[in-house]
Model the fold of this input.
Amino acid sequence: MSLKSSDSDRLKKTDQSLIALLSDRLSLLAASEQPSLDEQLADVAPLLAQAGIPESVWAGVLKSCHATLIPKYAINHVSPRQITIIGGRGRMGRLFKEQLSVVGHNVSVLEHDDWEYAEQLLNQAELVLVSVPIEHTVDVIKRAAKYLDKTTALCDITSVKTQPTQAMLEHHSGPVMGLHPMFGPNIKSFLGQKVVVCPGRNDDSFQWFLDFIKSKGGELVVCTPEEHDRMMVIVQATQHFCRFSLGIFLAEVKVDIEQSLTMSTPNYRQEIDIVKRLFSQNPNLCVDIMLATEERCNTISFLANTYSRLAKLVARKDRDALIQEFENTQRFFEEKITTFLQPLNTTPLQRDFKPQMHTNMSI
Done:
């Protein structure tokens, strides 16, 4: 049904006002350093709730504003750099190659069958990016280091940071840094994505690379390799195990996923999307993330014991004990979480759910 003439006029005036306000917002953001997207969303969360506006709508506005302000001169004004990605034909390696190449950098790839050209590919590079499976990372760093010039910046992008960073510092005398992109290779851009930065040596040599990630809308989080690895036990390894277990359970009981989605909650759809992405990946990558360190294995075992303990309470229908567990944990979250948490359905997922058959580089 079309709008009445009076409503149509009001809509046009409202749109004019919104456009004027968006123009003001872009001008303000362009004139100063932008807060993170999470911070901008947290600032107005109560207002959105009061007005009945879904946070996903506002998150879309924030991301669009951010994308608009990404420097349009980046492609034409970049100083081309020589970059070699070890494992550049793996999925994450391809992502970084595409993103760096599109702005004008010269990106070469070194794979397992290219080591006869290692001196040519590595010695002249300004940046060498190691993007190989976790279990091969340290060995590849040792193998590559002998070919590097002392001015070459060496960086890895694996999900474990302590051992790779130590190996780079030990075997390479030049600039060293550890990065962990907190996203999978199916993203369309770095916009709104977090990258953990673990400084190693001569951080200034990586500033152009960090600026590149920020210019594409990425958010940098700085910490030590040890801090990173402690957090990833919870942030990554246990979450992989939970979704790995859920996926296997759904397959074993032969759930009709399509039918379940027709009557699902938003949170259930989100969880199924995440599980589907997990099982579209290379199985080696998923398993390596869970088995990468002894601490991860021990914590996953503790988590499994927690599941078992709670399942026994359910089997006994021990209502009082389950309520006590809930209330104890409720107090924990009330005490520990004081920052704004973005709802699960706030940010649209920029993913391609088609199964990928490519594997990461094997050395």
In short: The first helix runs from residue 5 to 30.
